[in-house]
């Protein structure tokens, strides 16, 4: 049975509106943490100028393949394993990178590896779009996000809603500059970093 996430159905159109602008001049996109595969198929269908590359931990790839098998799009690549706990990054470079609802469910060392890897495979001038809930200077943007953060940490102490200040520190060290901070529905944001020339 195909995996299904209601959140993907709810947020796909608002995210698409952002990606249409941010990836307008791109051709190759790496998605980190493709999850069920719903986003990969939808964005490949809606953004036919892009070659979309899904990736995730090994146990999620069968579900992604089920979604992909129904779409049968030439511009949607077969998913590959990218596990930030033991990363083996591709040798290819990408014009853009997208990740949704990932950094709050992984440990901080994996978040650090994420930014290091993004900087390695993102082309100069390329953009990294990160969607999800965030806090600013230790303050949540809503009570719902605060409760969500508490629930995450109760289930797994190394997870939790990340602070943009901390992410900015990682991004700066990796040669990425924040160019957009976009308000999204349901107290989420899309943060957009651009790789500095020569980084």
TrEMBL record:
<protein>
    <submittedName>
        <fullName>Uncharacterized protein DUF938</fullName>
    </submittedName>
</protein>
<dbReference type="InterPro" id="IPR010342">
    <property type="entry name" value="DUF938"/>
</dbReference>
<dbReference type="Pfam" id="PF06080">
    <property type="entry name" value="DUF938"/>
</dbReference>
<dbReference type="InterPro" id="IPR029063">
    <property type="entry name" value="SAM-dependent_MTases_sf"/>
</dbReference>
